[in-house]
Every structure is written in C-alpha cells, then in structure tokens.
Design a protein that fits this description.
This protein is α/β, with parallel strands linked by helices. The protein contains 20 helices and 24 strands. The protein has a 17-stranded mixed sheet, with no helix packed on it. A 3-stranded antiparallel sheet has the order 1-3-2, with helices on one face. It has a two-stranded antiparallel ribbon with strand order 4-5.
C-alpha cells in the first residue's frame, strides 16, 4: 500500500466586523484571486473559491499533495513503517549475531552436534544402567558421601552449589539393564571417539567466555532498544492524525495557500502503532527477564552435583565459562540433555567404556593363545601396553601367573577370586587399584609379587598386607635415605616373606629389611653402581642362605658376610673388588657352596682358597687373573668352574683332581695348551675353550663320555680328532666350531652328530 495524502483548497470565512485591513487583505489574497463584490446591507461578503484557469489541474493537485506530504505531515506518521522495519532488523541482528560470528557460531554448532550424538549414543544408556547395577559397597559409600555433602553447604563452594542445575527433575533416571544391550564394536568405537571430542571441546571452550559476553551484550542492547522504542512511540503516537492542515507558500503556482489534507494511512498507522507498542512491550519484558536470568546467578559456573547424586557417577567435573553457559542454555530447553551429556565428562564412565571395548577385543580364546611358562615354571599370561585389564582374564581359571606391563589405571576387581591357581603377580610400571574383596583373595593366595616402578608413589600400598607373600621383587628408583621411608616400614608385616630382591640405588640396607630378617632366606640388592655402605645390619640376618650384592661399588668383601653361618650362596657381581685376601674367612661358612666373584677387577686368587672345601660352584669370570694357583683345585667338590674372560695362560695339571667337575669354562683367555689331566674329569658335560691360542685338541677328549656341549671356536685348530665320535652325548647343536673345521671330521661322525 502506498502512503499518501489528498489535499483540497481550504474555504476561508472572513470576519464580520472587518476590524483591520490586514485581515481583509489576507482573506482576499488567500481565498480568491478575483476582486471582491461590494457588500450589501443584507448579504455578507462571500468569496468564491476558484483556481487559476490552466490546463494542469491534475498536475497541480499532485504537486500540492506532494508538497503537503513533505511539509505538513509529521515525520513519525511518514516514517513509522520504516522505523518498525529498522527496529525489527536491529532486534534480529542482536538476537542472531552470535549465530553468525565465526568465533561463537563454530562453538555453538560444534556443541549442538556433540550434544545430539551424546544424547543418542547407546553408551549413555549403558553407562547409566551400569550405575543401577553397582555393588552394595559402592552404593553405601556414595550415600555416605552424599550425606556428608548435604551437611557442608556453607563451605567455600557454597556459591557453586547454589547454582547447580537439573533440580527440575526430581525423579532418578534409572535404566533397565535388560534394555541396555551390549555395545557392538562399532558403537564402542563411536562412543570412544565421542569421549575424545568432548574432552577436547571442553578444554577449548572453557578457556574463554566469548559466548557469555556476547549474549549479555546483545541482551543489554535489546533492553536499551526496547526502552527507547517505548519512550518515543508513546510520546509520538498521537501525531498520527487523519486530517492535517497544510499551509504552504505556493499561491503563485496554484492560487491558494491553505489546504485541508486527508492522510489515507493515518487510521491504519494509528492502530498498528498501538499494536506495535504491545508487541514490543512483550518482547521487552522477555528481554528484561533474560537480563534478570543472566545476572541472578553466575552462568559461568555449572555444577553437576545433582547429577552426581542422582546417577552415582561421582567424578563428573563442574565446568565453567562458555561451557557452563551453554549447559545452562540447554537446560532451558530440556535438562535431560545435560544429564546424558554429563556421562561423557566422567572418567569413570570413559574407563568403563574402555573396559567394555577391551573385553570385546581380548576374548578368553585370544588370551589363552598368549599363555606361556615363566622362569618359575608357572603358566603365565603377559599383557603389555594395553589400555586396561580385560575382565576376560579372570575367566582363564588355569592361570598361575599374571604379568602386567605399562598399563595405566589398572583396577583389580573382585572377580580375581575365580583364579584359584593364581600365585604370582607382576606389575611393571602400572598404577594399580584393588577391590577390597580382591585384596582379601590376594592376601590368602599370592606367593610372588614383582613391582617395577619409576616413582615411589607407584608402589601399591596394599602390598604390605599380603601376609602369605613369600617372594617380593622391587625394581625402581628409591630415595638414598630409604631407611627413613615410612612405607617400607610395613615390610615387617610380611611374616611369610622368604625372598626379597631390591634393584635400586640404596646407600644402606633398609631397616625394614632387617625387620623381616628372622624369616628371610634370600636377599638380592642390585644397586646400579651406587655405593653400598653400613652393611653391619647383615649380621642380624642369621637365617640368610643366599645373598646377592650386585653393582654395589664394593672394594672389599664385607666382613658382615662372614657372620652369616647359614649362607649357602654368595654373589658379588659387578663390584670393584681387586683383592680377596678375606676369602680365608669363608672357611667358617661351612654351608657355602656357591661363590660368584665375577665381573670385578681381581688380579690373583689367594692360595688359602683351598680351605673352602665345601664349594661346588665357583665363578671368577670377567676379571684380570693371570695365574691359577694349583691350590684352587684342592676344592675337590667343585662341579662348576668358570674362569672365562681373564688373562690366564696356563692350566695346572691339578685340574684333574676335580672328579666332580661338570662345567669348565676358560673362554677368552690366552691358554696355549690343555693338560691331559683335564680329560680325567669324566663327569664333564660342558667344556668351553673357545677364543684361546690352542692349536691341538687332544684325542683323549674321547674319554668325556657325558660331554654334551663343546665350544672350540676362535682357536688355531686345523683338524678335530675323530675321537670326538666317542662322546655319544655330543650333537652338532652342542658343538660350537667353524663349519670348515667341522668338515675335517669323518663323515660317519658328522652324520652321527647331526642325528638329534
């Protein structure tokens, strides 16, 4: 519709008394261009209304209408439709700008996308159904936590509690487990991807508050706009009139100056302006309520306290900034969205999903394929670098040893009690939590525990209560002042402990170790080069039968060792021993059968080693020994003698005295010949003479009927004696020799050796 006015010349009635010439002349000029008639006493003067006689009557009226529209009509009546349009566009811009601005629209779109996927994800239903089926112990703990939180409302987080959401849903959301079917692999992977998206989205959105600030500003702007519209419209709505007087100076062109005009749209505009005021008032009140809602409580903080109490997922974190604001906004639509979204903020829920995916990936049949026999002759299942511990492990009831390596956040459940044969547990760089029922089972059944750690905090605190534990292996970096460490004091409760191995960097034997010395039978300390001092505590370990002090930077054999009358085996590997004159004191250790002084800097063997008549195994390998004393071979019980990697040039013929000798190694020395007396040791099974300067292998080697392993590689032999064929136990796999040298044997002997 076109807004216009229609104007007509206005009839002017002159005054009866003609009081002034100016009024008459004005009337004459304005009313008619013709000279007036003379008045009669009986008739008043009437001015005839006539326009100038031209051929442009229609154009004149159009011109008059346009001039009066521009000059006489009030601006509010003219521009009312445009004002309404402009105000509407401003309101639309204020309301929709944050949906178009890149910095805010991307967050909103991403949030809506993730929110919809979280709401529809089957994992949401599954997670809440898991909560409904949790065990009574966890329920009781949560009830206690809830009761405590209800009594502490005045704490420093009181403001946050006051702003908690979802109070509009009093009923508890419980899912029937029968409807929460098992997730397939695809659904599990989709839920896992959702957790990652939510985690990254939260980190990104919580950094700023651009959405909140933008929403506050646009709401404030709309309120101000509303107040302005109400103010000026209320004041100017009366200016919209149907009849308008128009006085324009166009007499020269039309013959008239005063006109009466009709504004054709005035009636409609008047009604519309009142309606517009009503609509704007309603919209403005909505904006005022929004402003009140924004400042009534902090929308930059969002508490899931009510969700935590209702669902039982206690680790759902509270959020802030734009993330909190968007959750408050979605609550205005449907609080159930936030509730289901909260599942994907919980690490407990994420861990349960990982557990479910893990169980689907590692079936019992697949785990059984990984079973192997370990060094302790137990059936072991090694699991390395998994995302968790599959529940399917506890279906393998024949399992005896469980080895977990580089697995974070391991939770040992009560179902471990199904493993009736489990005796050994290895934890290598794993952070482990354990269910109370599982701990009770391990206290009764676990015999061997191995823990490898990078930090003392990774040591499981529950290990100190394993009262039936017999073997404990600790590998990791400990404090130098470990004796003052409170956690190791609890070792005294391990009443059944027999073997203790510590591979670390201790400077002295921990007091906690001394506390279990009464029943400790074997102790191993591998010190990685840290000097071990103050060894007097060893004297208290009267029942110790095996002692290993490896890489402890010892320069002498500790005197405290000579007090261990029950000692049977002593290993002083990788120390800094140069002289072993103290070896004579070993004669008091009548049970000592194994002595390992390998990987040191020993230059000679004292003659009084002959007094160690109980020795059965002796190792001097990787030293700097040049001469072998003949008295060494007076230890006639020796079955194992390792002299490899030294500078020995000559083997005394007294070696033939060792009639019990089964293992003899002089690998990597400078020996040029072997005494024939060596072949009197007819029980010899392993002979290692490789990497020497030997040129002839005596035919008497055929006397060694039990020989099963012979290493002659790296010498100067040109031919092997055919008498090797008399060594019936010696096969090709047990003969270490150059291929060309092996071909010097007769063909029948070669064929005989190749037969397994």
């Amino acid at each position: 519709m076109q807004d216009k006015i229609i104007c007509l010349p206005k009839r002017v009635q002159p005054s009866q008394n003609h009081s002034s010439v100016s009024n008459v002349s004005q009337a004459v000029v304005s009313a008619t261009p013709l000279p007036p008639t003379k008045p009669s006493p009986t008739n008043p003067v009437t001015v005839e209304m006539k326009g100038l006689k031209t051929d442009l009557d229609l154009q004149q009226y159009s011109f008059i209408n346009q001039m009066c529209y521009e000059r006489a009509l009030h601006w509010y009546a003219k521009y009312f439709p445009y004002l309404v349009l402009i105000h509407t566009l401003v309101f639309m811009l204020c309301s929709n700008f944050w949906f178009k601005f890149p910095g805010s629209s991307s967050k909103i779109e991403h949030f809506i996308s993730i929110l919809g996927k979280c709401f529809d994800s089957p994992w949401t239903t599954r997670a809440l159904s898991e909560v409904s089926g949790e065990d009574s112990e966890e329920k009781d703990n949560r009830k206690n936590n809830v009761s405590r939180s209800n009594t502490v409302q005045s704490g420093p987080e009181g403001n946050l509690v006051n702003s908690q959401s979802l109070k509009s849903i009093p009923e508890k959301f419980v899912v029937d487990k029968s409807t929460a079917g098992a997730l397939d692999k695809k659904e599990g992977e989709q839920a896992k991807a959702l957790f990652e998206k939510v985690k990254k989205f939260r980190i990104h959105v919580e950094e700023g508050d651009i959405l909140y600030a933008m929403y506050v500003r646009q709401t404030v702007l709309k309120v101000i706009k509303f107040l302005i519209i109400i103010a000026y419209n209320s004041a100017l709505v009366s200016k919209v009139q149907f009849t308008v007087d128009c006085n324009v100076d166009i007499q020269d062109m039309t013959g008239y100056k005063n006109f009466s005009c009709n504004h054709t749209m005035a009636h409609l505009f008047s009604k519309l302006s009142f309606c517009y005021l009503c609509f704007v008032s309603i919209y403005g009140l909505t904006c005022l309520y929004t402003l009140y809602w924004l400042f009534y409580r902090s929308l930059k903080e969002y508490s899931f306290e009510y969700v935590r109490q209702e669902t039982g997922i206690d680790d759902i974190p509270d959020v802030k900034n734009d993330f909190a604001f968007m959750l408050h906004m979605i609550d205005q639509y449907d609080p159930l969205y936030s509730k289901r979204f909260a599942v994907f903020l919980s690490e407990v829920s994420e861990n349960k999903l990982k557990q479910l995916n893990l169980n689907n990936e590692w079936t019992p049949d697949k785990l059984r394929q990984k079973l192997q026999t370990n060094a302790h002759n137990r059936l072991e299942l090694p699991l390395i670098m998994l995302s968790g511990l599959p529940d399917t492990v506890f279906e393998i009831t024949e399992l005896q040893s469980l080895k977990l390596e580089i697995i974070k956040n391991v939770m040992i459940p009560a179902t471990i009690a199904q493993l009736d044969n489990l005796q050994e547990l290895s934890l290598h760089q794993c952070s482990v939590k354990i269910h109370s029922a599982a701990l009770s089972f391990l206290k009764e059944n676990l015999k061997v525990l191995s823990v490898k750690f990078d930090d003392m905090r990774e040591l499981p605190p529950w290990m100190y209560g394993l009262r039936n534990l017999e073997e404990l292996y600790l590998v990791g970096s400990l404090s130098h002042d470990i004796s003052k460490n409170v956690t190791l004091e609890s070792l005294r409760d391990l009443k059944s402990l027999k073997i203790l191995s510590i591979k670390s960097n201790v400077s002295k034997i921990p007091q906690a170790v001394v506390d279990v010395s009464s029943h400790l039978q074997k102790m191993c300390i591998h010190n990685d080069g840290t000097k071990l001092v103050m060894l007097n505590n060893l004297k208290k370990m009267s029942n110790l039968t095996e002692l290993e002090l490896v890489h402890c930077d010892l320069e002498r054999i500790p005197h405290a060792v000579f007090s261990l009358l029950s000692l049977q085996e002593l290993d002083l590997k990788e120390n800094n021993l140069k002289s072993i004159e103290e070896i004579v004191s070993f004669q008091h250790l009548r049970k000592l059968t194994v002595l390992k002084l390998w990987h040191n800097s020993i230059t000679y063997i004292p003659e009084h080693i002959k007094k160690l008549t109980s020795l059965e195994r002796l190792s001097f390998s990787h030293n700097k020994i040049e001469v072998l004393p003949s008295h060494l071979f007076l230890c006639n019980k020796i079955r194992y003698l390792d002299l490899s990697y030294n500078d020995i040039r000559f083997i005394p013929p007294e070696v033939g005295v060792l009639q019990s000798l089964q293992y003899f190694s002089i690998t990597c020395n400078k020996v040029e010949s072997l005494p024939d007396e060596l072949y009197f040791c007819k029980k010899l099974k392993t002979l290692k003479i490789g990497k020497n300067n030997l040129s002839i292998l005596s035919p008497k080697i055929g006397n060694l009927l039990f020989l099963s392993y012979l290493d002659v590689k790296g010498n100067h032999f040109e031919i092997l004696p055919p008498e090797l064929g008399d060594c019936r136990a010696l096969k090709r796999a047990g003969l270490v020799v150059e291929d060309a040298l092996f071909e010097t044997l007769p063909s029948d002997i070669r064929e005989q050796m190749k037969i397994e």
